[in-house]
Amino acid sequence: MSSVILRSKVVVIGEWGVGKTAVIQQFVSSGTAFPKNYSMTLGAEMSTKVINIPDQEEAVELVFVDCSGRDVYLDLISRTWDNASMILAVVDVTEEDTYTRAKA
Fold first, then answer.
1. Alpha carbons within 13 A on the beta-carbon side of 12
2. Of 9, 41, 47, 97, which has the fewest Cβ atoms less than 10 A away?
3. How many other C-beta atoms lie within 10 A of the C-beta of residue 64?
């Protein structure tokens, strides 16, 4: 067990339906969970994963903030970006618009 835990907030953004929740669930479960049906994320949902650093007494706790891709939640979501360590933009490679909007 790690004695020091470094926390990092990862805000996950992208258009609705691009697979943000699926990417997070795959990573958090180490590839063991892949539900076939998802409910649309309303606002933001949080997930965590602790990653032990090999041969060290430290671990990194990643706190994922899964943000809804719907514009109606934009004001709420923009507040989740405060103190973020990372922002992960998820796009659908078959839909160019999702990439274009992620750049904006």
1. 26
2. 97
3. 25
Cα–Cα dist 98/46, whole Å: 22
Q: What is the pLDDT of residues 68-98, one digit of tens each?
A: 877 766 676 677 778 899 999 999 999 888 8
The CA-based angle 87-82-4, given to 5 degrees, is 75
**Strand positions, DSSP E, the chain:** 4-13, 44-52, 58-67, 86-89
Q: Dig out the tokens for 17 from the structure.
A: 């339906």
| Digit-coded pLDDT (tens) for 2-32 | 577 899 999 998 888 898 998 999 999 988 8
